[in-house]
Amino acid sequence: MADSAPAQPQGGQSHAGRASSWLAVTVILLGFTIGGVALTIGPNWFLFWVGAGVIAVGGVLALVFDIFSDVIEDAPRTMAAQEHHSPFERQDLA
Fold it and tell me: Is the pLDDT of residue 65 over 50?
């Protein structure tokens, strides 16, 4: 029977990411929100472009902080053939 326990992250890292990476993502999300609100209240094009500028700043932060280095590659996970994951799958028909 194959071990279905999740693989441990390499080097003691976690999937949470660094605080600097989350800062970049938050700035991008803030810019997207500003732009979206600007489109719904008018459209207010000045505020829309302010949001686009905030997104660009967040993108630069993402490049500077190298947020893609937060990715952790786990070993492939395997599942046993007997496991059923659907509540609609009847096990007594097999």
Answer: yes
